[in-house]
Every structure is written in C-alpha cells, then in structure tokens.
Amino acid sequence: MVDPASIGVSIAASVLASLGAVEYRIRRSRSIEEQDEQTEWYAESARLAKRVQKTWEGKFERPYEEDRFSSFDEVQREMNLLHSQLTEHISETGDKDVDEEVVEALGTTATACREVYDLGIHMNVLDEFKRTGENAKEDAERLEQEALERL
User: Fold this and answer.
1) What are the Cα distances from residue 6, in Å, to 2, 15, 20, 53?
2) Is CB count within 10 Å lower at the N or C end of the chain?
3) What is residue 119's predicted lDDT score, i.e. its pLDDT?
4) In the prediction, which pLDDT does 50 show?
C-alpha cells in the first residue's frame, strides 16, 4: 500500500518541477525576445548608416564627378531627414542593452548630417560642403562597421 505522505511529497515535487520548467521557458522566451530586439536595433543602425553613405554618394559625389550637380538644398534636406532618423533611433535604445560605442557612433553621424544641413550656402562653399559631407560619410562608415560587428 502507498503511504499518503509519499503521494503528497510526489505531487509536491511534480508541481515544483512543472513550475520550474514553466519559469525557465518564460525566462528563456524573454531572453530570446530581448536578443531579437537588440539584433534588430543593430541592423537598423547599420541600415541608417548605409543610407547616409548612399545619400551622399547619390546626391552629391556622383553628380559632382559627372558635372551634373545642381542643388545643395536637396542634399541638405536629405541629410537633415537622416539626422532626424538617426536621432530617433538613438532614442529607441530605451531599456535595450546595446553597446555604448554604437550609440555614440549614431550620435556622431547624426551630428555630422546636421552639420551638412546647417552649412550656409554662399559663393565659395563647395570645398567646405564637400569636406563636411565626406566627414558625415566617414562617420556613417564607422557606424555601419560598429553595428555590423555586433550582429
């Protein structure tokens, strides 16, 4: 005959084991979700960095090299939009455990984009405009590298 106390102990052990397994699955699920959010955040950082590079190349470098560059305003508007997107992405770090170097690279790139936008257009601005934009592109390249290393 089975002792009622051993049945109770067996039931209690089964319940505790089940609760432990459920708790483990919940924690594991949360951990995976957090990792997915971090991965997505880094991927978006790299995408934004690539957009800065492509914008500068497509709106200024190539047209300038082909003697068909015509509008500082268009480049400046695009760089201001990218500044806003980079700044917004920084604010999305929230409670994510992301690398501070990538956040700093985002900030540096956003600032560089804003400098292109803020540059006053005047008669001899071309060299300064080119240098400022190239700085933004270089900052974006560093950002992209930093973000991709963490994927």
Assistant:
1) 7, 14, 21, 70
2) N
3) 96
4) 98
Cα-based angle 62, 66, 68 (whole degrees, multiple of 5): 95
Q: What is the DSSP letter of 123?
A: T
pLDDT given for residue 1 in this prediction: 60
| Secondary structure letter of residue 119 according to DSSP | P
What contacts 36, CB < 8 A, 6 or more positions away?
Answer: none
- How far, CA to CA in Å, does 135 sit from each of 30, 43, 81, 98? 39, 22, 17, 25
Task: Give pLDDT, residue 86.
Answer: 98
| Contact present, 94 and 147 (Cβ < 8 Å) | no
pLDDT averaged per 10 residues, the chain (length 151): 68 64 61 82 98 97 94 96 98 90 98 97 93 98 97 90
72-105: burial string, b at 16+ Cβ within 10 Å, e else: beebbebbeebbebbeebbeebeeeebeeebbeb
Q: How far apart are CA 138 and CA 133, in angstroms?
A: 9
Instruction: Give the pair of three-digit tokens for residue 24.
Output: 């483990």
